[in-house]
Amino acid sequence: MKQRRGRAGPDRYNEAMRKIAFLVGALAAVAQAEVRPMTLRQAVSLALRQNPDIALTRLDAQRARQGIRVARDPFTPRLTVGSGLAYSDGFPMSIEGSAPSIVQAQAKQFLFNRQQSLAVAQAKEDARTAVFTANGKRDEVAYRVAALFLDAERAAHVETLARKDTDSRRKVLETVQAQRQEGRALPLDEKTAAWRVAQARQIAEDLEDQRIAAETDLALALGYDAEDRVRPVEEERSLPPLPANEDEALREALDSNQNLRRLESQIASKQIERRGANAARWPHADLVAQYGMLARFNNYDQFFRTFQRNNGEVGVAFQLPLLAGSGVKAQSAQSEIDISHLQIELKEARNRLASDLRQSFRESRKASSAEEVARLDLEVSREQISVDLAQVQEGRLGLRQLEEARITENAKWMSFYEAQYALEKARWNVLRLTGALVDALREPAGNPLRGAGW
User: Fold this and answer.
1) Would residue 17 count as lying in a domain?
2) Residue 82: its pLDDT value, please?
């Protein structure tokens, strides 16, 4: 027995040290994590500045703009300075196409090159495509952040109600236990009440996990670390206004949808690419200039009548392709196939946009009706609570019945929050499809993240 106690001592010590290490690690993780409270508009405005997906599309747009400079570069003079210094034995031959010289300089510039001019035009159109892509990603991220914000807000509201429901069921259990001791309740009633308390506690814990997950997802969408969370701030927020009717909303969507603009820009780019492939048969002219400083040790004075140390020439190199090859026609055909492919995508995108918009309008109307029904049902439940409170004061109703009525009221509150959440999300979806979401959610100028712990 003494030996067993001796071995148990170090075991208890090691277990205690492991618990201490675990607590220290947990405290360190909590210290590193940060909860950032903010409103819906503040969250969307922040996402538009630092969301990783938006940042990537902006970089792509910057790269496309630099592509215009790359395409224009051949139309600017290119000057190369070097030396072709060499010793000649016999007749002075050329070094890489130029006469041996101490210093030599060459300049070249496109004067007329139809194919390269169309390449510049295509680079400009590709830059427009990148802008439309970035704007489309901006609208997508704004809606995703708004949806995540509503998810986190809804989870917080429902979790609070679940905690209240747990408290009410615990009070019912206490009342049933007192009644059982008095002989006015069966053991089955007590077990049923205890089961309902445990069930309500489990639901509240699950909702807490959902809230934490929603706040973490929202933080990631705003560009924060995985340890951080963004918590919605309670605010009075009116529902976003919708267009007058579906036809007006569809016109706005077709005029402003960034995905449609992107496809149209890609079609224009491919059309320019096709013209550029055919322009390979066009003549082109280049401005050329050359300077060379010659030396006597290259035997120029022995093989030529006169020797001039500094020499230069300026002219135009003109070329006319006679046989461009079969690749030009094949490249043009490839561009034509790409255009047909994009036109099919554009038609499909328009039809899908019209269908999604009409469906979102119907969902918005259904959500509005459901919200009204839930609100009226909640008003009835709240009025019933007032009646029950009056009956409790008069001694005509017990506390158990009152707590059960409050449990029913909590359920009505949950249904009301669910209906409000569905309605607001449906309306934001309509604005996303019409292209008005970002303007509706953008934080007003001069109002940066105030009140959000910054």
Assistant:
1) no
2) 84
DSSP 325: -
User: What share of residues in the chain are helix, strand, coil (percent, to 5)?
Assistant: 70, 10, 20
Phi, psi of 35 (to 5 degrees): -95, 120
- Which is nearest to 125 in space by CA: 265, 275, 332? 265
**Is 20 domain-assigned?**
no
Side chain identity, residue 92:
P
Residue range of the domain that includes 113: 36-441
Taking each helix axis as running N to C, give the angle between helix 114-181 and helix 40-50, from 0 to 180 degrees, rounded to the nearest 10: 140
Output the six-digit token pair for 366. Answer: 């259904």
E strand or H helix at 331: helix 326-393
Cα–Cα distance for residue pair 198/19, rounded to 1 Å: 28
Q: How many domains does the chain have?
A: 1
Average model confidence (pLDDT) for the chain? 83
In the block, tokens 């300089």 appear at 105
Q: β-pairing, 35-38 with 229-232?
A: parallel
Q: pTM of this prediction?
A: 0.74
Model confidence over 164-185: pLDDT tens digits?
888 888 888 888 888 888 887 7
CATH code, domain with 151:
1.20.1600.10
DSSP SS3 for 304: coil
**pLDDT per position as a tens digit, 10-20:** 555 556 555 56
pLDDT over 80 (residue 317): yes
Question: Could you tell me if 391 and 397 are in contact, meaning their C-beta atoms sit under 8 angstroms apart?
Answer: yes
To the nearest 10°, the Cα dihedral for 163, 164, 166, 169? 180
User: Which pair of tokens denotes residue 178?
Assistant: 């007192």
